[in-house]
């Protein structure tokens, strides 16, 4: 990555200046380079002289000029300038930029990879909606954020595992079992009241009919609670199979589907509660087991296990926190992941500090845990907001969304905004075939390049072979296109470091815009034989751009069409 190269050159310049007595001895702080706000200021800018003023006892401009004087020569540097109040600005050399086209083509599908992770094992747990029905658009945003982040982390050199946490213990799945039982009994002619807290969607009736087709009326012969437990188990399995099908449509595959119930069946939940008690961070009050969260900086303590006087069913007494703590222990201690990343909806915002406090209480470094909390999605049709309620059966599912607008629009648009910002998903925008639709805009750039290359293969195939003279790429639009391609590595690094996949769609849009500008100002294929060599070079530039666009789209789980 050229930014890393320039960073090291700046550091080397300071060391050289110190060795020559042009700067006093001091420990060099981290060197950071940024892109200046205006192109005429260069490609990269170092503001370090502003920070060094107190260390070097020199004016920032003097430090900037001294650094600029001592920067070692490098083929990538075309120009070094200083600017008030203390910046060192670098402009990349046109010939070096042009030659990067070959390097990008040589890298192929690996272009954009950076080695941040060095093979560290990271688990990304996402979606994880209660297995009580189809996925809604809210879970779809969770899916898009989580899977894109997993792809980015892989590109950044991490060993990534994707996991779905199946909440198959507790009250929600019991409500599912009771709902199925009611519909099952009704379908078989028995008068059975539907539970007030049941799930009313049509899918419950479909599940009941499928169970009847397979097993007949055998569950009516069971005592009701036993029948509900059995239908709960069957229902959860049926929902999971549907979830797998829906997620596969969206290009998502999980390495593990982890059962919450397994934490109880294995005894790990009890083990963790005993461990917390042994550490003196739990107590019993009013029949409930509490975690001393206030000892870890929280405003109030948290319930781990509810009182039997409040919840009669022992299976439903443990709170979310009671399962979260053995689950994180399983991730980071039992299975030994270096980091655990969670994608949670805004309704779980309050759980974040409790989980981190619980990790600290267990002796697990909270810094190994990263929880992304995403805000809600508002689905609109024609400007009208659509109300969604899984329990009421009034919701648009992920499958509905995939049917309406396609997987590419779903994945791209759901990560277009930062996770901490509530967003509207505009169905009309998602299907629009115009520049107003960013998915279409970027994919069209890829398809346009594919068309150019097909035309070249038909009309001038010799231009696609042989070595191109890349030094002929001197037009500002050509060089700006190369600059934009080179930024993919920086975007992968940024998205992986900050855990912010929304940088990818913005990058892809900027790259598409750079190509469209190039196409506007530079004729790729010319009928004039005298222009053969520049056409050959521009075709290589187009091929490189096509590859980088495809890589950026793939990192988002979005297709790169050859024609549109």
Keywords:
564 residues; alpha/beta; Gyrase A, domain 2; Rossmann fold; five-stranded parallel β-sheet; 13% strand
Structure report:
This protein is α/β, with parallel strands linked by helices. The chain has four domains: about 1-90, Gyrase A, domain 2; about 120-165 and about 255-375, Rossmann fold (3-Layer(aba) Sandwich); about 170-250, no CATH class; about 435-555, Orthogonal Bundle (Isoleucyl-tRNA Synthetase, Domain 1), CATH 1.10.730. Helices cover about 50% and strands about 15% of the residues. The chain has helices at about 1-20, 50-55, 60-70, 95-105, 135-155, 170-185, 200-215, 225-250, 260-265, 270-280, 320-335, 350-360, 400-405, 405-415, 425-430, 440-460, 475-500, 505-520, 530-555; strands at about 35, 45, 75-85, 85-90, 120-125, 160-165, 255-260, 280-285, 290, 300-305, 340-345, 370-375, 375-380, 385, 425. The chain has a five-stranded parallel sheet, sandwiched between helices. The chain has a four-stranded antiparallel sheet with strand order 1-2-4-3. α1 crosses α3 (about 60-70) and α16 (about 440-460) crosses α18 (about 505-520). The chain starts with a helix and ends in a 9-residue tail after the last helix. The model is unreliable at about 390-395 (pLDDT under 50).
